[in-house]
Amino acid sequence: MLAAVLAAVLLQLGFAAPAGATPPGIPAAATARTYLAALTVAASTHTTTYNRDLFPTWSTISGTCNTRETVLKRDGTGVVVDSACAATSGRWYSPYDGATWTAGSDVDIDHMVPLKNAWISGAWAWTTSKRESFANDLSDPQLFAVTDNVNQSKSDKSPDAWKPPLTSYYCTYARAWVKVKYVWALTITSAEKSALTSMLNAC
After folding, report:
1. Separation CA 137–CA 124 (nearest Å)
2. 113 touches 72 (CB < 8 A)
3. 80 - beta bridge partners?
4. In the β-sheet with 87-93, what is the strand arrangement from edge to edge?
5. Among candidates 37, 42, 18, which has minimal Cα distance to 27?
6. pLDDT tens sequence across 14-38
7. CA proximity to 50, closest of 119, 149, 134, 125
8. pLDDT given at position 144
9. Where are the alpha helices (DSSP H) in the chain?
10. What is the mean pLDDT of the chain?
């Protein structure tokens, strides 16, 4: 009973989402505001030199399971996988748009901070090994299982150019974005900071 009450309270506070669809490490709004204030504001650089191959995905995590398959299992409900770790059934709630899917093929794994955005905000100077760690980061709120076409709509856009279809998710989205930028010491643009400030004010 206590566990159920605690889960309900955490959900109301934005620390959890339906079907376990919240990656780890999303900070409280006050903490996110502190992180945002600490980020370096700078113009994007190396905007024409990005190559996705510089960010190896998806890494093997355990046995035959790679990062994508690990996130599908983490964020889904009742996920069944075959011997190759591919999801054969389950249910996935996409927190960006509120849709629920029963086929893993309808779900993309979104990088909260897109790989190209990371590149132009500092990852251009990283080693390939560090970029691989970033692209497969399961310790921070960087990887989200979401509706495939929503992920494609987002592409490599930052919050000043794209926000989740669900306005009720703005607060969580901004908290996650800021945490990833903070942990990985990436810069933000002034427009990005303005958008994130407004989103955090919705918390």
Report:
1. 17
2. no
3. 89
4. 76-81, 87-93, 100-101
5. 37
6. 333 344 447 999 999 999 999 999 9
7. 119
8. 98
9. 2-12, 29-38, 67-75, 115-120, 128-135, 148-154, 170-183, 190-200
10. 91
Burial of 133 (0-12, 13-18, 19+ CB in 10 A): middle
Question: How far apart are the two ends of the chain, measured CA to CA in Å?
Answer: 28
**Mean pLDDT of the region 187-201:** 98
Residue 4, C-beta contacts closer than 8 angstroms, at least 6 positions apart = none
Separation between Cα atoms, residue 190 and residue 169, nearest integer Å = 22
Average pLDDT over residues 84-98: 96
Structure tokens at 159: 């919050």
Residue 37's contacts (CB-CB under 8 Å, 6 or more residues apart) are none
Q: State the amino acid at position 68 in one-letter form.
A: R
| Residue type for position 16 | A
Nearest to 14 by CA among 3, 27, 2, 1: 27
pTM of the entire structure? 0.89
